[in-house]
Amino acid sequence: MGAVTDDLLKNTDENFQYRKNEEKHLKMTNEVIRKRLLIDGDGAGDDRRINLLVKSFIKWCNSGSQEEGYSQYQRMLSTLSQCEFSMGKTLLVYDMNLREMENYEKIYKEIECSIAGAHEKIAECKKQILQAKRIRKNRQEYDALAKVIQHHPDRHETLKELEALGKELEHLSHIKESVEDKLELRRKQFHVLLSTIHELQQTLENDEKLSEVEEAQEASMETDPKP
Amino acid sequence: MERAAQQAVPLGQMEVFEALQRLHMTVFSQSVSPCGKFLAAGNNYGQIAIFSLSAALSSEAKEESKKPMVTFQAHDGPVYSMVSTDRHLLSAGDGEVKAWLWAEILKKGCKELWRRQPPYRTSLEVPEINALLLVPKENLLILAGGDCQLHAMDLETGTFMWALRGHTDYIHCLALRERSPEVLSGGEDGAVRLWDLRTAKEVQTIEVYKHEECSRPHNGRWIGCLATDSDWMVCGGGPALTLWHLRSSTPTTVFPMRAPQKHVTFYQDLILSAGQGRCVNQWQLSGELKAQVPGSSPGLLSLSLNQQPAAPECKVLTAAGNSCRVDVFTNLGYRAFSLSF
C-alpha cells in the first residue's frame, strides 16, 4: 500500500514539475515571440540576419585559413550593408510618417477655418434674405398702389381740361355780358321811342282837343254876338 | 395582431367619453409663452392645454412629447381668445377674462390670478368675448365681443376705463395699428372701424361690403379676420380677402380665395391666411398665391407664429381649428407634425 501511494505521489510530483516546466517554457516562448515581433516588424528576417552576423563574426574570429577568413569577411560585410540598408529604409518611413502628421494637422486647421467662414457667410446671407424680402414687400405695395392710381385719370390732362373749360366759361360769360348790354341798350332805346310816341300822341290828342274846344267856342261865339 | 386583440377588449366608459370629446373638439385660440418654449391652446370645452414646443421639436421627441404637459379647466364656456403678456396668460371666452401666471401654469391645480368682467349694459345675458388685444405701450387690454362694444382695461389697476360704441352687431376681431396708435375692429355688421386710443373716438369706418370688388353677398358681410401693418390692412370673412390701403381707404388687391378666411396675419413679405379649408395659404402682396400647405384639421380657426427672441429654435407656425390637433409647421413649406389634446 505504502509503495503504491509513494509511487502515486512521485507520479503526481513529476506531473506537477513537468507542468510547471511546460508553463515556464511557454512563458519564455511567449516573451521571445513578443520580443521578436517587436524587433522584426517587417518580417523580412532582419532579426535572423543580425543573429547570423553575430554568429559568423564569432566563427570568423575563430577561423584558421586566410582565404576562408577573407570570404567570410566579405560575406559579413554584405550582411552588414543589408542591415544598414533596411535600417535606412525604416528611418525614411518614420520621417515620412512625421511629415504626413504635420500635413494632416495643417489641413484640419484649414477646414476648421473654412467651417467658421461658412457659418459667417450663412448668417450674412440670412440677413440679406430678410433685406430682400423687405424690398420685395415694398415693391409690391408700390405696385398695388400704382395700380389703383392708374385707374384715376392723369393729373395733367385733367388740369388741361379744367383750364379749357375755364376759358370757355369766361368766353361765354363775356358773350353773355355783351348780349345783355345790347339788350339793355335796345330796351332803353325802345323805351325812349315809345315814350316819345306816347308824348306825341298826347300832344296830338291835346291839340285835337284844343281844336275841338276852339271850334266849340267859335260856334258858341257865332250864336252869341247877335243880341 | 396585438393591436387588433387590444381593440377587441371593450373600452371603458371614460375612454369612450374622452374619445367622443376629442372627436367634437374645436381649438379656438392659441398663445405662445414669453420664453417661447410653450404653447397654450384653448378649446370649446373651456380647457386650456399647455404643450412644450421645445420638447416636441427636439431630436429625441417621442409620442408623449406631442401630448400636452398639463390640461386644466379654465372657463365654463369656450375659450375664444388668449394673449400673453411677459408674465401672464390672459384668456377670455364666456364674458370673463382670467389671468394665469406662466411660471405657475405647469404645476397641478393652477389657480387663476384674477378674473374680471367688463361692465355690460344688461345683466341678463353675459355676452361672450371674441377678441383680446394687448396695447403694450399704454399697458391696456382691449376686449370685444358680443355686446358690440370695445372695452379697455388697464392692466395695472384692473379698472375698465372706457367703452367704444359704434358697431351695430357683435365684434369678431381686433387689430392694433402701432403708429397712430389706433385699434381696428371688424364685426358682423360688415364694417371695419378705426378708433383712436388717446381720444377714445371713432376715426374712420370702412364698410367693406359696399365695395364691389370684394363684396360677396352670398357669403354675407361679416368680417372674420383682420390684420394690419400700419399703412395696410387685410380683412376677410364674408367678403373676399382684400388688401386695403388705409390712408386712402381703397381696396388695392383682392385675393382669389373662395372660402371665407378666419385668421390672417402679415409675416415678412407674405400674408398668411387660414379659414374654411384644410390649408394655410401664403399670399404675395400682389395677389398671387405663393403656396398652399394642407394641415390636418378640416377647417382652421387660428394661426400663431412663435417669434419670441428667447427661443429661436422654436420658431414655428402653429395652426389649429376644427379638430383636437394643433399642426406645427417648422418650415412654411410643409406640416412637420401635429400636437394633440
As residue ranges, the low-confidence spans of chain B are 1-5
Principal-axis shape of chain B equals globular
Oligomeric state of the chains present here = heterodimer
- Straight-line distance between termini of chain B: 27 Å
Mean pLDDT value of chain B: 89
Rg of chain B over CA atoms, rounded to whole Å, is: 20 Å
Helix residue percentage of chain A: over 70%
Low-confidence stretches of chain A: none
Bin the strand percentage of chain B.
Answer: over 45%
Number of helices of chain B: 3
Which features does this protein show?
heterodimer, A: 227 residues, mainly alpha, 4 helices, 93% helix, 0% strand, rod-shaped, B: 341 residues, mainly beta, 4-stranded antiparallel sheet, 28 strands, globular, disordered N terminus, coiled coil (chain A), nucleus (chain A), THO complex subunit 7 (chain A), THOC7/Mft1 (chain A)
Please provide a written account of the structure.
The complex is a heterodimer of chains A (227) and B (341). Chain A has four helices and no strands. Chain A is mostly helical and 227 residues long. Chain A is rod-shaped. The termini of chain A are far apart. Chain B is built from three helices and 28 strands. The longest helix of chain B has 11 residues, at 13-23. In chain B, strand 13 (171-177) and strand 14 form a beta hairpin. Chain B is globular and about 60 Å long. Chain B has 341 residues and is mainly beta. Helices cover 7% and strands 46% of the residues of chain B.
